[in-house]
Specification:
The chain has helices spanning 2-16, 46-49, and strands at 28-37, 42-44, 53-57, 62-67, 73-84, 87-96, 99-109, 112-117, 124-130. With 131 residues, it is mainly β. Strand 1 (28-37) and strand 2 (42-44) form a beta hairpin.
Length: 131
């Protein structure tokens, strides 16, 4: 009987210990390396613009931004979907200093993130690499 109690207690202990999971596919530290698109087919990099943008998206959905390309500061982010006839977009909504910036996002590779302003016409595409 004591062996059975011990077995139940050990089983409950191990099944109740859960590792916190990160459900955010975009979590990580990101560094902007180019922007393309818009009117005039813009091609902008930190080297030719003198600008920078570092974006940190934490697993707990807090964020921070530094640099001068986008509004900086600490904040939060959410991931949503925009499903309409003809398209399905994954959206990244970053709230910082009372402003909400919405991007549609996709992965070029595991370590390269593409963010598009959620504008139908002439928006820029920003490319970031995981640090």
């Amino acid at each position: 009987m004591n062996n059975l109690k011990f077995l139940v207690i050990v089983t409950l202990f191990f099944t109740s210990c859960k590792k916190e999971q990160n459900n955010s596919p975009v979590a990580g530290q990101w560094e902007w390396f180019k922007a393309t698109g818009g009117i005039g087919n813009i091609y902008q990099t930190p080297q030719n613009s003198g600008r920078s943008w570092q974006l940190t998206l934490n697993p707990d959905y807090t964020s921070s931004q530094t640099g001068d390309l986008m509004p900086g500061g600490a904040g939060t982010y959410t991931l949503t979907e925009d499903i309409n006839p003809g398209w399905h977009k994954q959206l990244l909504n970053i709230t910082s200093n009372g402003l909400v910036t919405t991007f549609s996002y996709s992965f070029i590779s595991h370590d390269t993130l593409r963010l598009d302003h959620h504008i139908e016409v002439d928006g820029l595409s920003y490319f970031l690499v995981r640090k």
